[in-house]
Prior knowledge:
Elements: E1 5-8, H1 14-25, E2 29-34, H2 38-52, E3 56-60, H3 66-79, E4 85-88, H4 103-131, E5 134-141, H5 143-146, H6 152-172, E6 177-184, H7 197-206, H8 215-226, E7 236-239
Parallel strand pairs: 1-2, 1-4, 2-3, 4-5, 5-6, 6-7
Amino acid sequence: MKQNIAFITGASHGIGRAIAKKLASEGWSLAINCHSSKEELFSLACELKETFHISCLPLVGDVGDETFVQSAFEQIRRELGSVNVLINNAGISHIGLLSDMTLEEWNRVLQTNLTSVFCCCKYAIPDMVHNKSGKILNISSVWGAIGASCEVAYSASKGGMNTFTKALAKELAPSGISVNAIACGVIDTRMNQCFSEEERAALCEEIPAGRFGSSEEVAELAFSLLTSTSYLTGQIITLDGGWQ
Protein backbone atom coordinates (compact mmCIF):
# COMPACT_ATOMS: atom_id res chain seq x y z
CA MET A 1 0.00 0.00 0.00
CA LYS A 2 1.25 3.46 -0.88
CA GLN A 3 2.63 5.37 2.11
CA ASN A 4 0.46 8.27 3.24
CA ILE A 5 2.40 11.53 3.34
CA ALA A 6 0.47 14.38 4.95
CA PHE A 7 1.25 18.09 5.18
CA ILE A 8 -0.42 19.78 8.15
CA THR A 9 -0.37 23.57 8.51
CA GLY A 10 -0.67 25.25 11.90
CA ALA A 11 0.49 22.09 13.63
CA SER A 12 2.42 23.41 16.64
CA HIS A 13 -0.60 23.38 18.97
CA GLY A 14 -4.34 22.85 19.19
CA ILE A 15 -6.21 21.08 16.42
CA GLY A 16 -3.22 20.80 14.09
CA ARG A 17 -1.10 19.20 16.82
CA ALA A 18 -3.87 16.71 17.66
CA ILE A 19 -4.27 15.75 14.00
CA ALA A 20 -0.51 15.27 13.68
CA LYS A 21 -0.48 12.93 16.69
CA LYS A 22 -3.44 10.94 15.36
CA LEU A 23 -1.91 10.46 11.90
CA ALA A 24 1.49 9.64 13.39
CA SER A 25 -0.13 6.98 15.58
CA GLU A 26 -1.43 5.40 12.38
CA GLY A 27 2.07 5.30 10.88
CA TRP A 28 1.73 8.20 8.44
CA SER A 29 4.74 10.25 7.35
CA LEU A 30 4.27 13.93 8.16
CA ALA A 31 5.40 17.39 7.26
CA ILE A 32 4.24 19.80 9.95
CA ASN A 33 4.22 23.56 9.79
CA CYS A 34 3.87 26.66 11.93
CA HIS A 35 4.68 30.33 11.46
CA SER A 36 6.11 31.43 14.80
CA SER A 37 6.07 28.64 17.43
CA LYS A 38 9.33 27.07 16.25
CA GLU A 39 10.33 25.43 19.54
CA GLU A 40 6.92 23.81 19.98
CA LEU A 41 6.94 22.54 16.39
CA PHE A 42 10.41 20.99 16.61
CA SER A 43 9.57 19.47 19.99
CA LEU A 44 6.45 17.90 18.46
CA ALA A 45 8.45 16.53 15.53
CA CYS A 46 10.92 14.88 17.91
CA GLU A 47 8.09 13.46 20.02
CA LEU A 48 6.33 11.95 17.01
CA LYS A 49 9.53 10.41 15.64
CA GLU A 50 10.51 8.88 18.97
CA THR A 51 7.03 7.67 19.96
CA PHE A 52 5.68 6.41 16.64
CA HIS A 53 8.88 5.83 14.65
CA ILE A 54 7.64 7.82 11.66
CA SER A 55 9.27 10.37 9.38
CA CYS A 56 8.37 13.91 10.43
CA LEU A 57 9.64 17.07 8.76
CA PRO A 58 9.10 20.40 10.62
CA LEU A 59 8.76 23.46 8.40
CA VAL A 60 8.65 26.98 9.84
CA GLY A 61 7.17 29.71 7.66
CA ASP A 62 4.12 31.63 6.51
CA VAL A 63 1.84 29.42 4.41
CA GLY A 64 0.14 32.58 3.17
CA ASP A 65 3.41 33.35 1.33
CA GLU A 66 3.52 31.50 -1.99
CA THR A 67 7.33 31.56 -2.14
CA PHE A 68 7.59 29.74 1.17
CA VAL A 69 4.90 27.22 0.22
CA GLN A 70 6.60 26.41 -3.08
CA SER A 71 9.94 25.77 -1.35
CA ALA A 72 8.21 23.76 1.40
CA PHE A 73 6.62 21.39 -1.10
CA GLU A 74 9.94 20.99 -2.91
CA GLN A 75 11.61 20.06 0.39
CA ILE A 76 8.83 17.62 1.30
CA ARG A 77 9.12 15.95 -2.09
CA ARG A 78 12.89 15.58 -1.67
CA GLU A 79 12.82 14.27 1.90
CA LEU A 80 9.53 12.38 2.19
CA GLY A 81 7.94 12.02 -1.24
CA SER A 82 4.79 13.42 -2.83
CA VAL A 83 2.10 14.79 -0.52
CA ASN A 84 -1.15 12.86 -0.94
CA VAL A 85 -2.94 14.35 2.08
CA LEU A 86 -3.18 18.07 2.80
CA ILE A 87 -4.72 19.48 5.99
CA ASN A 88 -5.19 23.25 5.85
CA ASN A 89 -5.46 24.13 9.53
CA ALA A 90 -3.43 27.35 9.94
CA GLY A 91 -5.63 30.14 11.22
CA ILE A 92 -5.80 33.26 13.36
CA SER A 93 -8.68 35.30 14.72
CA HIS A 94 -9.23 39.00 15.26
CA ILE A 95 -11.83 40.17 17.76
CA GLY A 96 -13.10 43.73 17.56
CA LEU A 97 -15.37 46.11 15.69
CA LEU A 98 -14.89 46.19 11.94
CA SER A 99 -14.74 49.99 12.04
CA ASP A 100 -11.70 49.76 14.32
CA MET A 101 -9.89 47.20 12.17
CA THR A 102 -6.99 48.32 10.01
CA LEU A 103 -6.48 47.14 6.45
CA GLU A 104 -3.23 45.49 7.59
CA GLU A 105 -5.13 43.47 10.22
CA TRP A 106 -7.80 42.51 7.69
CA ASN A 107 -5.20 41.36 5.15
CA ARG A 108 -3.32 39.37 7.80
CA VAL A 109 -6.43 37.37 8.71
CA LEU A 110 -7.35 36.70 5.07
CA GLN A 111 -3.77 35.79 4.13
CA THR A 112 -3.34 33.39 7.03
CA ASN A 113 -6.79 31.79 6.89
CA LEU A 114 -7.65 31.76 3.19
CA THR A 115 -4.73 32.69 0.95
CA SER A 116 -2.77 29.92 2.67
CA VAL A 117 -5.39 27.41 1.54
CA PHE A 118 -4.99 28.57 -2.06
CA CYS A 119 -1.19 28.40 -1.89
CA CYS A 120 -1.03 24.94 -0.32
CA CYS A 121 -3.66 23.48 -2.63
CA LYS A 122 -1.94 24.94 -5.67
CA TYR A 123 1.30 23.09 -4.90
CA ALA A 124 -0.30 19.88 -3.59
CA ILE A 125 -2.68 19.31 -6.50
CA PRO A 126 -0.27 18.49 -9.37
CA ASP A 127 1.12 15.34 -7.72
CA MET A 128 -2.36 14.30 -6.60
CA VAL A 129 -3.71 14.68 -10.13
CA HIS A 130 -0.74 12.75 -11.51
CA ASN A 131 -1.44 9.91 -9.05
CA LYS A 132 -5.24 10.13 -9.51
CA SER A 133 -5.75 10.20 -5.74
CA GLY A 134 -5.49 12.50 -2.77
CA LYS A 135 -7.31 14.07 0.16
CA ILE A 136 -7.61 17.74 1.04
CA LEU A 137 -9.19 18.66 4.37
CA ASN A 138 -9.82 22.26 5.41
CA ILE A 139 -10.40 23.15 9.06
CA SER A 140 -13.20 25.70 9.05
CA SER A 141 -15.66 27.15 11.57
CA VAL A 142 -19.40 27.46 12.13
CA TRP A 143 -18.84 31.21 11.79
CA GLY A 144 -18.13 30.60 8.12
CA ALA A 145 -21.81 29.78 7.65
CA ILE A 146 -23.58 32.14 10.06
CA GLY A 147 -21.04 34.87 10.89
CA ALA A 148 -19.97 36.20 14.28
CA SER A 149 -20.31 39.73 15.58
CA CYS A 150 -16.90 41.37 16.15
CA GLU A 151 -15.23 38.61 14.09
CA VAL A 152 -16.08 39.78 10.60
CA ALA A 153 -12.70 39.07 9.02
CA TYR A 154 -12.49 35.61 10.58
CA SER A 155 -16.07 34.80 9.51
CA ALA A 156 -15.39 36.03 5.97
CA SER A 157 -12.23 33.93 5.72
CA LYS A 158 -14.03 30.77 6.85
CA GLY A 159 -17.00 31.47 4.59
CA GLY A 160 -14.53 31.77 1.73
CA MET A 161 -12.91 28.51 2.80
CA ASN A 162 -16.27 26.75 2.69
CA THR A 163 -17.12 27.81 -0.86
CA PHE A 164 -13.50 27.19 -1.89
CA THR A 165 -13.94 23.63 -0.59
CA LYS A 166 -17.14 23.04 -2.55
CA ALA A 167 -15.78 24.52 -5.78
CA LEU A 168 -12.42 22.73 -5.66
CA ALA A 169 -14.15 19.44 -4.87
CA LYS A 170 -16.05 19.69 -8.15
CA GLU A 171 -12.87 20.57 -10.00
CA LEU A 172 -10.87 17.63 -8.61
CA ALA A 173 -13.49 14.88 -8.37
CA PRO A 174 -12.73 13.59 -11.90
CA SER A 175 -9.16 12.98 -10.72
CA GLY A 176 -10.21 10.92 -7.70
CA ILE A 177 -9.30 13.66 -5.21
CA SER A 178 -11.67 14.55 -2.39
CA VAL A 179 -11.94 17.98 -0.79
CA ASN A 180 -13.90 18.42 2.43
CA ALA A 181 -14.01 20.73 5.44
CA ILE A 182 -14.78 20.43 9.13
CA ALA A 183 -16.75 23.41 10.47
CA CYS A 184 -15.77 23.48 14.13
CA GLY A 185 -17.87 24.93 16.89
CA VAL A 186 -16.24 25.98 20.16
CA ILE A 187 -13.12 23.85 20.54
CA ASP A 188 -10.99 24.12 23.68
CA THR A 189 -7.86 25.56 22.05
CA ARG A 190 -5.51 28.47 22.57
CA MET A 191 -7.67 30.60 20.25
CA ASN A 192 -10.56 30.40 22.73
CA GLN A 193 -8.53 31.12 25.86
CA CYS A 194 -9.62 34.75 25.57
CA PHE A 195 -12.88 33.85 27.35
CA SER A 196 -13.21 34.41 31.10
CA GLU A 197 -14.52 31.60 33.31
CA GLU A 198 -17.92 33.31 33.40
CA GLU A 199 -18.00 33.60 29.61
CA ARG A 200 -16.96 29.96 29.20
CA ALA A 201 -19.74 28.85 31.55
CA ALA A 202 -22.33 30.94 29.69
CA LEU A 203 -21.16 29.58 26.35
CA CYS A 204 -21.33 25.99 27.58
CA GLU A 205 -24.95 26.59 28.55
CA GLU A 206 -25.73 27.49 24.91
CA ILE A 207 -24.22 24.25 23.59
CA PRO A 208 -26.59 21.25 23.79
CA ALA A 209 -23.63 18.95 24.52
CA GLY A 210 -22.89 21.15 27.54
CA ARG A 211 -19.16 21.56 26.90
CA PHE A 212 -16.46 22.72 24.53
CA GLY A 213 -15.17 20.20 22.02
CA SER A 214 -11.62 18.89 22.20
CA SER A 215 -8.85 18.99 19.62
CA GLU A 216 -8.69 15.20 19.83
CA GLU A 217 -12.34 14.95 18.75
CA VAL A 218 -11.58 17.06 15.69
CA ALA A 219 -8.59 14.82 14.98
CA GLU A 220 -10.74 11.68 15.16
CA LEU A 221 -13.24 13.14 12.70
CA ALA A 222 -10.40 14.31 10.46
CA PHE A 223 -8.94 10.80 10.36
CA SER A 224 -12.35 9.34 9.49
CA LEU A 225 -12.69 11.74 6.56
CA LEU A 226 -9.14 11.20 5.36
CA THR A 227 -9.62 7.43 5.27
CA SER A 228 -13.11 7.52 3.79
CA THR A 229 -14.14 6.91 0.18
CA SER A 230 -13.29 9.60 -2.39
CA TYR A 231 -17.01 9.67 -3.22
CA LEU A 232 -17.42 11.77 -0.07
CA THR A 233 -16.37 15.17 -1.34
CA GLY A 234 -17.45 18.80 -1.34
CA GLN A 235 -18.89 18.53 2.17
CA ILE A 236 -18.76 20.99 5.06
CA ILE A 237 -19.20 18.78 8.11
CA THR A 238 -20.19 20.57 11.31
CA LEU A 239 -18.69 19.47 14.63
CA ASP A 240 -20.24 21.66 17.31
CA GLY A 241 -22.10 19.58 19.90
CA GLY A 242 -25.43 20.59 18.37
CA TRP A 243 -24.79 24.30 18.93
CA GLN A 244 -25.74 25.76 15.54
